[in-house]
Amino acid sequence: MKTRSFIVAIFMVLGTLSMAQSSQIIVHDPVAIEADGKYYMFSTGVGIAGWVSDDMVHWRFLTQVFNPIPEWAKKAVPKFDRNMWAPDISYHNGKYYLYYSISSFASNLSSIGVATNESLDPEHPDYRWVDHGPVVSSVPGRDLWNAIDPNLIFDENKVPWMAFGSFWNGLKMVRLNTDLLSVAEPQQWKTIAARERDFELPDEDPGNAAIEAPFIFQKGDEYYLFVSFDLCCRGERSTYNVRVGRSKSATGPFLDKKGKDLAKGGGTLVVQGDENYYGIGHNSVYTFGDKTVMYSHGYDKHDKGKPKLMVHFLVFDAEGWPVVKE
């Protein structure tokens, strides 16, 4: 789940621990995009934290995206604490689309909102975030899924879909209108990844099926669905790890290396905690130039379990599966 109580104080703070793979800024849930010769990153924080880089590895804080926080968010989720979770950034129709999550810990009273901008450079004359409000919402007692952790993907027919979800009965996907601001009618929903939940639990309980943070990456004619298993946001008790499956279709089914459907608990391990990190997860993956880069966060064993930016470069093995480049 996405407990962010300490992000208010630290999301703008820079870490100091050096590492070959990362500038070690403190972040949760990083996503990135290349624009106008620079790299821009967005992450969980008060109003969403924005970062900029010249080399895709070393980052400096740039801006708080929302100031003030959208009024609709405060009304939709009364326990919302101004921390906007798990953004997703992409460029379409001549605009940048920034999706974000509004929720509170251990609740599926949640909404995914979206804002657009013509530039990501705060110094550009066309820079202005325009918020369009909620796209998808979940309601306790009605939905056994959670409307957080969005990721936009276009299928092989250029139809837009949003993948999202956390805990409950797994990760979902819904078709969007071409304006990318709303769910298309007739509504089409799919379950793309799930783990077995104890269904004796009440619906309002997130349950013990710890899976979240879908991210779909296309390489050639394959679509790779990355997900995070186990627990985030618990410092020294974090057990996050990243799994993957793939499909010829953007909407699945996604199968792991053993042929098991991610919707039935499958998932091939990509990265996990190690001697330096308690857990690593909530990743995003991009092709920048000739490199495939994966961003995620890990809980630093040498710095009180703080969430640090992880930058891993991926290669694909002889069977086409992504592995972390050593």
Fold and architecture overview:
The protein is mainly beta and 326 residues long. It has a single domain, classed as Tachylectin-2, Chain A, CATH 2.115.10. Helix content is 3%, strand content 44%. It is built from 2 helices and 21 strands. Strands 3-6-7-8-9 form a 5-stranded antiparallel beta sheet. The longest helix has 6 residues, at 71-76.
Give structural attributes.
326 residues, mainly beta, Tachylectin-2, Chain A, five-stranded antiparallel sheet, four-stranded antiparallel sheet, 21 strands, 3% helix, globular, disordered N terminus
Question: How do the helices and strands line up, and which of them pair or pack?
Answer:
Elements lengths: L6 H4 L20 E5 L2 E6 L1 E2 L2 E5 L5 E6 L6 H6 L6 E10 L2 E8 L7 E8 L12 E9 L12 E4 L5 E5 L6 E5 L13 E5 L17 E9 L2 E8 L11 E7 L20 E5 L4 E12 L2 E10 L6 E10 L5 E3 L2
Antiparallel strand pairs: 1-2, 2-4, 3-6, 4-5, 6-7, 7-8, 8-9, 10-11, 11-12, 12-13, 14-15, 15-16, 16-17, 18-19, 19-20, 20-21
